[in-house]
Amino acid sequence: MSSLRPLPDTEGKATFAVSAAVLDVLGLAPEQAAHLDLGDVFRLIREEGA
């Protein structure tokens, strides 16, 4: 049985994933989304009315 380990450089941080469909709705490239935190994503979703 293997244990779950955090992704590199994410120790002590909450991580999340955004689907390609959400990125399309928000008009973001994956590279742009990589620099956002979850609060930014929620704000953009609210602004876009998605």
TrEMBL record:
Which superkingdom heads the taxonomic lineage of this protein's source? Bacteria
Q: What is this protein called?
A: Uncharacterized protein
Species assigned in the record: Streptomyces flavovirens
